[in-house]
TrEMBL record:
<dbReference type="GO" id="GO:0071972">
    <property type="term" value="F:peptidoglycan L,D-transpeptidase activity"/>
</dbReference>
<keyword id="KW-0808">Transferase</keyword>
<comment type="similarity">
    <text>Belongs to the YkuD family.</text>
</comment>
<dbReference type="Pfam" id="PF03734">
    <property type="entry name" value="YkuD"/>
</dbReference>
<protein>
    <submittedName>
        <fullName>ErfK/YbiS/YcfS/YnhG</fullName>
    </submittedName>
</protein>
<dbReference type="GO" id="GO:0071555">
    <property type="term" value="P:cell wall organization"/>
</dbReference>
<dbReference type="GO" id="GO:0016740">
    <property type="term" value="F:transferase activity"/>
</dbReference>
<comment type="pathway">
    <text>Cell wall biogenesis; peptidoglycan biosynthesis.</text>
</comment>
<keyword id="KW-0133">Cell shape</keyword>
<feature type="domain" description="L,D-TPase catalytic">
    <location>
        <begin position="25"/>
        <end position="141"/>
    </location>
</feature>
<keyword id="KW-0961">Cell wall biogenesis/degradation</keyword>
<dbReference type="InterPro" id="IPR005490">
    <property type="entry name" value="LD_TPept_cat_dom"/>
</dbReference>
<feature type="region of interest" description="Disordered">
    <location>
        <begin position="192"/>
        <end position="225"/>
    </location>
</feature>
<dbReference type="GO" id="GO:0018104">
    <property type="term" value="P:peptidoglycan-protein cross-linking"/>
</dbReference>
<dbReference type="InterPro" id="IPR050979">
    <property type="entry name" value="LD-transpeptidase"/>
</dbReference>
<keyword id="KW-0732">Signal</keyword>
<dbReference type="InterPro" id="IPR038063">
    <property type="entry name" value="Transpep_catalytic_dom"/>
</dbReference>
Amino acid sequence: MRWYLVALSALMILLGGSSLVQAKVAIAVDKDAQQMTVAVDGVERYRWPVSTGNPSHETPNGSFRAFRMEEDHYSKEFDDAPMPHSIFFTKVGHAIHGTDSVGRLGTPASHGCVRLSRANASTLYALVQSEGVLNTTVSLTGSAQVALARNPKPKANTAVARRAPDYDGVGAPVELAPQPAPRRIVPQVADDGYITPADGSSDQARYPAPRGYRRYDDAQAAPQPQTQYYGARVYAPRQYYQPRGYYGYYD
């Protein structure tokens, strides 16, 4: 009788253990929609936004089995970037993990991993840990190019920060930098073929302009040197000397 009870207890434990093994976790990632669906024994339990690899680092498509978990992992390839609650599903290092860049969830932005928010990554990690990492499958479909076409990247803000203007006592803006003087605009004067004296002695007298002369307005005229005029030269009378005598003197 005792042996019968022992055998019955062992059978119940075995059946109970097999029922636990049958709980399968299926993680499906739709890269077109940048969304993850988590099902346990065929029943959907979670649906979260994710961020898969960008077109230069496309996350591979296919069906994989998770094989390793690390609660506090850091990337060895990308400057020790934090990868909390990592669940690895490829031999080359692709994993599902948490991220602080929650603003980029919904668009492909990673170097190949599947990013989740830290809270969702922690929930998924606890589920896989309780059901068994070797009992978890990861399947991926879609393309990063399609995801970008559906949800293009927002344009970067190219506005340049400028210093607030200074104001004087009455509230008027003060220009700190010197401003160039406005250019003088003078209407073009028609050339009638006559000129006035260059010395400025008269603005009434006019003379025919020489050949090849071109008239300029005030804005184009270059300063001309002023001609110096001198009065008539006056010379002192030449002195004449009388010849000196041989034996006399002059007073």
